[in-house]
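Protein modeling request. Please complete all fields; requests missing the sequence field cannot be processed.
Requester role: graduate student
Desired output: 3D structure, token encoding
Chains: 1
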Amino acid sequence: MAGYVEPGSTMERRVVEKLKGIIEEHVDWTTLHTIPVVKWEWSKCMVRVNGEEYECNPLPYASKSIGEGLALQASTLRVVAGGLNGRVLLYKYPESILELRFMVGEALKAGAEAVVLIGGKGRRMSDAVLSSSIPVMNPDTPPGIPVVVLEADAARNLQREEARITVEVDAGLSEATGRTLVAGVNGDEGNVIHVSTHHDGLPGDAGFIERYSEMLRDIVASAATVGGSSVILISFTAKEHGDPWLNSYTWSWGSRHLLGILSSKSELEKVVLDINVEAGGGDNASIVDNPAPILSYNSIPTGIHLNEAGAHFALDSLTYLGHGVPAVALTGLKPDVIINHEGLKRLTQHLVEAARDPEAMLRSMWRGLIGKLGDTPLEHRDLLARIHESSRLLGPRGAVRALTRYVSTLSSIYLVTGTGFHACISHMGYSAALRGCRGILEEASEMYGRVVAWGLSGIVLDARVKLKILEDVARRIDSATLIKSNELFNKTLELEACRQSLKGVVDERQEEHRDR
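Delivered output (516 residues):
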């Protein structure tokens, strides 16, 4: 096998069968879930200039289209924000997927005829473009213009001033069926651990798949040794792309689909922890802790870095967090590179042990949050304290879920200045996200910059802002969003009170029936 695993492909079927074959002797059961996905395929990509033709590679989800116009080379997004009518935009392939998506969306708004990305040898499997600039959770459409990648050597002829360029792409979408593998070790049904991963986007090399499957097998086996917990391995399809709704947030369709089904059946209420395993993704293995921390420094194995500022953006663990299930992501794990397997096993066992005691877990999360608060607004601290105290009504497990759901909300800030595009993402509000951009603000020489503040539910602010007052703007946004969070939490408490009241009535009637 060669290339990368695509959702709904024959290669995916083979990879799932390989994974099942390696894991099934070590688990009590396996099952296969099929889900609808979209396949994107292309047959032609050509760039023409001055009678010369150059082959290119289109980006998903570019469709069948032709763009023609005068070349315009841009190195900053400020140029892209200008008028691009009748122009073919030439832009160096961005290092960040967020800059890529933003740039293409802005070029569409500015009237570009096509976008030619120069370079991109290290193109990420997850790189996909749609019409929107911001990856929010809303259905979107293909860009409608060619968006292609051209090697730097071939692009030199395009960069001549006033060169007239034609870009042609033949590509399209079709319906397909993705495969998600689920396998379990039976144990305490009220204490379920998920080990989640995804197989789409992995190299199709049989040796790699075998080593990766063996690593997953060892993690599951380690988790199952702790206190008789039930352990379920889920290898999702369509994590990188394949969402049939073409949401602007293109990631994790497989986990969003399956966890939505489990939630509707109340099956997720039994899940106390997700350990998300992400292959590759960087030069070094790293850990992204639960937004309300549950890891201690002495539990981190050597050779694996704790990414304290990391967010769960574009990871399947974010789907779990949205359902209130605590999650820790292990990213950049490369089974073909020697890593600390014993340390990984001990880390797994530490996490499972921590999740078994909800009261201890709640205390650990609370202590970790106190250390992360910094200069967050008082309203934020007040709500955190209320959620912590809600264990009296919700119980410790319910409070863990409420706390996890609240602190997992993503707050994202894009800052476009003369120095370029900068993205800062946090689970602790817009003020915390802005702290990640503080160095950029200090280096900025201009007074104003374009600021886009957004979360998965939509854009909160898109304006030209005086950089000196940006911290005050972020605090105001946090205060406004906290009002909504308070309202939602109040409704959660009301619903739980009603549920317990109804449960009391049912229990009382059952007792009366037994007495008769």
